Amino acid sequence: MAKWYCSSDPAEGQISEVDHNTRRAIERILERYTKDMENYSYYGCNMGVSENDYDDIAEDIMTELELWESDKDDKDE
Fold it and tell me: What is the rounded CA–CA span in Å between residue 36 and residue 2?
């Protein structure tokens, strides 16, 4: 089960506000890529993330969290 955050008293929560905001940023990225995996089902939908999107998701997470190393061109100069 996910750790919880308490906005009214952050000391009461299991994670810090920074960690909570980081997790929410990742969740927002995943939400953008979540889609109905079956396209149609009489019994409802089957929501998920396609393996084809993993690279794009990883890049979005790295960009959002500023995890990229500086460009190689910058190192050469």
Answer: 24
Element (H, E) at 47: strand 47-48
SS3 state at 35: strand
Token reading at 77 = 């100069």
Say if CB 51 and CB 58 are below 8 A apart. Answer: no
SS3 48: strand
Q: Please give the model's pTM, rounded to 2 decimal places.
A: 0.76
* pLDDT tens readout for residues 27-72: 999 999 999 888 776 777 889 999 999 999 999 999 999 999 976 5
Taking each helix axis as running N to C, give the angle between helix 54-64 and helix 17-33, from 0 to 180 degrees, rounded to the nearest 10: 150
